[in-house]
Write a structure and sequence with these properties.
Layout lengths: L21 E6 L14 H9 L5 E2 L4 E2 L6 E3 L10 H13 L5 E6 L4 H9 L7 E5 L19 H7 L3 E7 L4 H9 L3 E5 L3 H13 L3 E8 L21 H13 L3 E9 L11 H20 L10
Parallel strand pairs: 1-4, 1-5, 5-10, 6-7, 6-9, 7-8, 9-10
Antiparallel strand pairs: 2-3
Helix pairs in contact: 1-8, 2-3, 6-7, 7-8
The structure holds manganese (II) ion (MN).
């Protein structure tokens, strides 16, 4: 159970799960995809590509071979489970890891529900920072209540506050729900230039438990094309990593977990596999850097 799979994140030496500070949890789940297939191939491709990434991170000066201690867990395989059954299993696995930082690798966006529910003591005080081309706020997609298109709706219904960044494809129903604004703030892609400072400040001012959900289709397809439902006009590399950094460094927030979802392995040459792996690495570097040298809390010592 505690044995690491053959392919470990960043090709780091094996680290038993009991000693790990960070757990990489592959969730190769793909059941309700509506356009291009392949999300189940994402975790493996990200892990493979991560082996090509330098262990020294020049931006934060973190040396990954000197910490954090990272365990790459065995994938939670879907098998014959129903969608609800799979989410239940993911929640069970992540709830046992609440004292670590869990970075899940999807898989379709649906997995966020299980991962966040397992990691949060209560969904009622959780804020989800979502980078995504889609709002994922539909009540039912293709008559299904549990799908990649409904995941944020389910989390919102259970009390989560949602901050979505980069949205550029949604239904009238979702738009109206977002506009009502009760615990939902959407930064649309077409207004992101005007609202950029506000978005970063809002994320940095978050308080309490925060979960980061990075749907890779939130990025512009020129940066990362390999996803099931690409949409033009998304976040560029520096915008996406700025949101990761703001989330990881928010001084009054506690980042309880994160995921990278909807990535589809590139055909040869592996193209954006490395970009997806580097997003994972950047997030862990920002988090470790914030942990070692936290920003002063606003008002602290004033
Ligand atoms: Mn999504």
């Amino acid at each position: 159970m505690n044995e690491s799979p053959a392919v470990r994140f960043l090709d780091l030496p094996p680290c038993p799960i009991e000693k790990a500070e960070v757990v990489i949890l592959p969730l190769p789940f793909e059941r309700t995809v509506s356009y291009g297939p392949g999300a189940a191939t994402g975790p493996r491709a990200i892990l493979e590509a991560s082996r090509q990434i330098e262990l020294f991170d020049e931006e934060t000066e973190i040396d990954f071979d000197a910490g954090p201690r990272i365990h790459t867990a065995e994938a939670v395989e879907p098998g014959e489970r129903s969608v609800e059954g799979y989410l239940e299993e993911v929640a069970r696995r992540t709830s046992a890891l609440r004292d670590r930082f869990v970075l899940s690798l999807g898989g379709e966006h649906t997995v966020t529900y299980g991962a966040a529910r397992g990691l949060a003591h209560s969904l009622r005080d959780l804020t989800i920072v979502q980078i995504d081309a889609h709002a994922d706020l539909i009540d039912a997609l293709d008559a299904k209540r549990w799908s990649h298109g409904t995941v944020m709706r389910r989390l919102w219904e259970e009390g989560c506050r949602i901050v979505s960044i980069g949205v550029r494809s949604l239904s009238r129903e979702e738009f109206d729900l977002a506009r009502k604004g009760d615990r939902i703030r959407v930064f649309f892609a077409h207004r992101l230039d005007e609202e950029w400072d506000e978005a970063v400040q809002l994320v940095r001012a978050l308080e309490g438990p925060v979960y980061l959900s990075l749907d890779v289709d939130g990025l512009d397809p020129s940066v990362l094309p390999s996803t099931g439902t690409p949409q033009p006009g998304g976040l560029f590399w520096k915008q996406a990593t700025a949101i990761l950094e703001a989330t990881a460094r928010a001084p009054k927030a506690r980042l309880i977990g994160a995921d990278i979802v909807e990535y589809v392995a590139s055909p040869n040459p592996p193209g954006s596999d490395l970009a997806a792996a580097k997003l994972a690495t950047r997030l862990l570097a920002y988090r470790e850097s914030a942990r070692r040298a936290p920003l002063p809390r606003p008002n602290a010592g004033a």
